[in-house]
């Protein structure tokens, strides 16, 4: 005990003291001989501890268990992390080639034993070569509940409710069947009594695995299609201000996106030419902004909307965007100003917390008198609708892509809107950091 106490005392010596090359401990004392001054040596007293529990009058070490990490919701960009999926035919052919190269264990002189050893090893190798990539797909494709709400909506609206999970379940079922067949036929091949029987059971196992993969391999091809489709989805940076163009079909949203940004959506004179979310970028004063072109909205309730319309609503619901709402009062878009007014009122009330800018497109086609469709009833008009038919919403900009009327003013207003959106994003980030702290 005294010796241990002397050692403990020596540990408390400061590193600048003279240290001895020889220590002799005896009944609680120590002696230093030939003292030397060591300039670089430092003593560190790091203590490592562990938890113990009392059991039967003795301390038993208890291993420290790490707390289970909670599943974290992914930020936007999970689709770009998806694994590369090989076609089912390529997976099987590659696995077959590797399995055929497996040789029997060296040193087996008996022909029958050598053949059944080779057959069992090849079946086991084929099973693993098929099952390993399938397991990788299942583990690396994110669960939908952990995705960002926007990407969750993209999956549901693109492939239908539940189809994403169903394809993953089919791939997992295929993996389990492959493992089951491999574990069934490899031992049978290993128990063969002759070379011929071993060869027959090897062939039987290979054909069974090939049949299963051929019948149910479509699930892998479906997963390949899902991966390619999701990976092609535009990535939205939540920290970058985003301008979202919204309006009825064929009102000129795509033309404005091409004019304002680097985005090049298709422009045609029929509705729903925008079949998804199209991204572009704007660079103003060395600052970068995002622009999204969205499918048009029709006058109907949410239950009757198609997936393209729901995609537009998903963008507005889950992404921090500023809205550039486009109106066409010329009658060229195929929808009456009255119907556009009803859609506009609904969207402005639902997403009134967004920063907003109204634009009247195709102003070169506007006439002095308002456009009135035959289906409209003038008797039920109210003052706000009459005013909307003539000049659109209050404060709206009138622009023409064809004549470039009002385009410079529009770009200036868009810049101001995006700068305001940037300040809003910064304020929210600061507020979130304060709440976390």
From TrEMBL:
GO MF annotation: an example: GTP binding
InterPro entries documented for this protein: G_FEOB_dom (IPR030389), GTP-bd (IPR006073), NOG1_N (IPR041623), NOG1_Rossman_fold_dom (IPR010674), P-loop_NTPase (IPR027417)
Origin superkingdom: Eukaryota
Domain Nucleolar GTP-binding protein 1 Rossman-fold: 308-364
Keywords, sorted A to Z: GTP-binding, Nucleotide-binding
Every NOG1 N-terminal helical domain range: 79-237
Domain FeoB-type G intervals: 242-299
UniProt-recorded name of the protein: OBG-type G domain-containing protein
The species this protein was found in: Gossypium tomentosum (Hawaiian cotton)
């Amino acid at each position: 005990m005294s010796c241990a106490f002397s050692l403990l005392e020596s540990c408390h010596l400061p590193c600048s003291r003279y240290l001895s090359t020889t220590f002799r401990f005896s009944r609680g004392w120590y002696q230093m001989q030939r003292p030397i001054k060591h300039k670089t040596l430092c003593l560190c007293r790091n203590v490592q501890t562990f938890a113990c529990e009392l059991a039967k009058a003795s301390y038993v070490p208890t291993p420290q268990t790490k707390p289970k990490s909670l599943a974290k919701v992914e930020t936007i960009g999970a689709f770009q992390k998806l694994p590369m999926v090989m076609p089912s035919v390529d997976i099987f052919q590659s696995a077959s080639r590797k399995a055929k190269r497996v040789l029997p264990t060296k040193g087996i002189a008996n022909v029958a034993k050598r053949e059944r050893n080779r057959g069992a090893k090849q079946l086991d190798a084929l099973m693993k070569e098929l099952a390993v990539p399938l397991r990788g797909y299942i583990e690396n494709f994110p669960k939908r509940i952990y995705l960002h709400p926007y990407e969750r909506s993209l999956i549901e609206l693109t492939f239908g409710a539940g189809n994403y999970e169903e394809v993953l379940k089919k791939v997992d079922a295929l993996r389990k069947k492959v493992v089951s067949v491999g574990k069934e036929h490899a031992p049978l091949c290993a128990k063969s009594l002759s070379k011929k029987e071993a060869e027959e059971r090897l062939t039987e196992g290979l054909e069974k695995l090939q049949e299963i993969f051929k019948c149910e391999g479509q699930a892998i091809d479906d997963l390949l299609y899902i991966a390619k489709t999701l990976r092609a989805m535009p990535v939205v940076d939540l920290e970058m201000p985003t301008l979202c163009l919204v309006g009825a079909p064929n009102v000129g949203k795509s033309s404005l996106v091409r004019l304002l940004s680097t985005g090049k959506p298709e422009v045609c004179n029929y509705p729903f030419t925008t079949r998804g979310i199209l991204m572009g970028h704007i660079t103003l004063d060395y600052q970068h902004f995002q622009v999204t072109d969205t499918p048009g909205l029709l006058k109907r309730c949410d239950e009757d909307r198609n997936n393209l319309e729901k995609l537009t609503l998903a963008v507005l619901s889950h992404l921090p965007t500023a809205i550039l709402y486009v109106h066409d009062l010329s009658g060229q878009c195929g929808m009456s100003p009255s119907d556009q007014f009803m859609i506009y009122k609904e969207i402005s009330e639902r997403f009134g917390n967004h920063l907003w800018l109204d634009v009247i497109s195709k102003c070169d086609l506007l006439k002095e008198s308002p456009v009135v469709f035959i289906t409209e009833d003038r008797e039920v008009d109210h003052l706000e609708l009459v005013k909307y038919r003539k000049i659109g919403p209050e404060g709206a900009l009138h622009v023409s892509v064809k004549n470039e009327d009002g385009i410079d003013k529009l770009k200036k207003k868009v810049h101001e809107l995006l700068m305001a959106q940037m300040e809003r994003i910064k304020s929210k980030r600061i507020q979130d950091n304060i709440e976390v702290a």
